[in-house]
Specification:
Elements (H helix, E strand, L loop, with lengths): L4 H11 L5 H15 L5 E9 L2 E9 L6 E2 L3 H9 L3 E3 L17 E9 L2 E10 L7 H16 L8
Antiparallel strand pairs: 1-2, 1-6, 2-3, 4-5, 5-6
Helix pairs in contact: 1-4
Bound molecules: methionine sulfoxide.
Length: 155
């Protein structure tokens, strides 16, 4: 069943009561991990070095770091600046397997004034976990994170 994303939007708005990117990104991934069923990892990769994603706040097992833009599902989101919704990561040739249990993945790029700030990455052990409705709902939640947070320009 699709969660009530309108309710989740309001809850996340209430939770993010600072403008600080570190506090808000930590709270956001903890909130998503708690509220969305069937996730095994939720976190941010940050664009802090050219053409590279650096591991940021996350919930779940220790993860891969760094990720070049050239590789994986996160790299594809960073290169194309479009959300990557993958039903079965085993079918993606250059998927980076941080956790063998991960099966489906959703990666949403976070773009501020034409600059990639980072990506939100969600993993699930359930094949086909993320529907189009989930993608739309999670993109809206990323929008809440962005409007509630001061996201400074980075290299
Ligand atoms: N699977 C990702 C790497 C990040 S982890 O899932 C946390 C990828 O292929 O980009």
């Amino acid at each position: 069943m699709t969660p009530d994303y309108t309710l989740l939007d309001r809850q996340l708005e209430a939770l993010l009561d600072t403008r600080d990117w570190l506090t808000n990104s930590a709270q956001t991934c903890a909130f998503l991990m708690q509220e969305l069923p069937e996730l095994n990892w939720a976190g941010f990769y940050l664009h802090r070095k050219p053409q590279t994603l650096c591991l940021g706040p996350f919930q779940g097992k220790p993860a891969c770091h760094p990720i070049p833009f050239a590789k994986g599902v996160c790299g594809a989101a960073a290169r194309t600046l479009t959300t990557q919704r993958i039903d079965d990561v085993h079918a993606v040739a250059d998927h980076i397997a941080c956790d063998a249990a991960s099966r489906a993945e959703l990666v949403v790029p976070i773009v501020v004034e034409d600059h990639l700030w980072g990506v939100l990455d969600l993993d699930s052990p359930v094949m086909g976990r993320f529907s189009e409705q989930d993608q739309a709902g999670i993109e809206t939640l990323v929008g809440v994170f962005m409007t509630r947070t001061d996201l400074m320009a980075r290299p």
